[in-house]
From TrEMBL:
Descriptive protein name: ATP-binding cassette domain-containing protein
InterPro entries: AAA+_ATPase, ABC_transporter-like_ATP-bd, ABC_transporter-like_CS, ABC_transporter_ATP-binding, P-loop_NTPase
UniProt-annotated stretches for the region Disordered: 255-278
PROSITE patterns noted in UniProt: ABC_TRANSPORTER_1, ABC_TRANSPORTER_2
Record SUPFAM superfamilies: P-loop containing nucleoside triphosphate hydrolases (SSF52540)
Cell compartments where the protein resides: Cell membrane
Protein transport recorded as keyword: no
Classification of source organism: Bacteria, Bacillati, Actinomycetota, Actinomycetes, Streptosporangiales
Sequence ranges assigned to domain ABC transporter in this UniProt record: 2-239
Assigned keywords, A-Z: Antibiotic resistance, ATP-binding, Nucleotide-binding, Transport
Domain of life assignment: Bacteria
GO molecular function terms listed in the Swiss-Prot or TrEMBL record: ATP binding
Topology of this chain in the membrane: Peripheral membrane protein
Amino acid sequence: MIHARKLSRTFTRKRGKERVDAVRGLDLDVEAGTLLAFLGPNGAGKSTTLRMLTTLLPPTSGTATVAGCDIARDPDGVRRRIGYVGQKNSASDHHRVRDELVAQGRAYGMTRARAGERADALLDRLDLQELANRTPTTLSGGQRRRVDIALGLVHAPELLFLDEPSTGLDPHSRAEVWNFILRLREESGMTLFLTTHYLEEADSMAERVVIVDRGRTIADGTADELKSELAGDRIDLGLRDAADAERARGVAARFSSEAAAAPDPSPAPAEPADTTVRIPVPNADTALPELLAAMEGAGIKVATARGVRPTLDDVFLALTGRSLTEEEPTE
Ligand SMILES: Nc1ncnc2c1ncn2[C@@H]1O[C@H](COP(=O)(O)OP(=O)(O)OP(=O)(O)O)[C@@H](O)[C@H]1O
């Protein structure tokens, strides 16, 4: 459904004095029917990639076909086959939801009757009937986002791009929008390509996660594959004081060669107290009892112990030494 080869985009700023390589040689193949989450820190090149694939921005070099059409040679073909839901609300504030859907259908060349039928079918299928005669200003954030998504579906695209669909929403509305997306995916089997900042959402909802950093793909797979191949489990031990923690690190070294080389191999976004020891292990469930027995054998009193499964942030940290939840330093 999407095939990109060496897709690149360079911007020049300050009257050509400064070059920004926003996307650098991206290769990507996406099968039809996939729900793909495109993740990365601020400035990684996610929106630029999305804008190139949706023909809103020409690439500096490289090629891509989207839904069978070349983005450079046949941008109209791409636009007819895809839907795009941007970060800003697309519905105007003062038109009723059904009228807005009809206007969108007309913009795609449908007759008034056909556009009306399509609007009603969408309202029905997406459970939006009760919003049909309301104006967007009277809707909640989640409802408004659902209407935006419906607008992107009027011309029955094969593929829908969503740029940060749940950003700026409260947790309840985020869950509402996600349920909506998952239902859409289940019922239509359509291909969904979305960017998100929310790692937990990408982790639990997407079938495939592509992580980009500084314009390049650094990881690609299912969330489980990425976590088990690139991050691994961890055990966090809480000790009574810094001296005990130091001794515990020595004992832990035998469980993990990395633990010996780097006493705190995984600096979390919140700095751990120096009484906390973090130990990378292949499997936390089996390592925990052995580790506690070893600590006891060395006369070290452990106050707290817990096995920690990796998150996608741990994957990013393992690959880049930075946390995905940290802000990028401004260039
Ligand atoms: N029109 C532009 N002119 C100059 N630089 C740009 C332009 N658009 C994007 N950039 C730069 O390109 C880089 C990638 O930006 P992009 O918006 O694609 O990142 P992103 O991953 O979508 O970030 P965010 O998560 O913050 O939306 C950034 O350094 C950004 O400042």
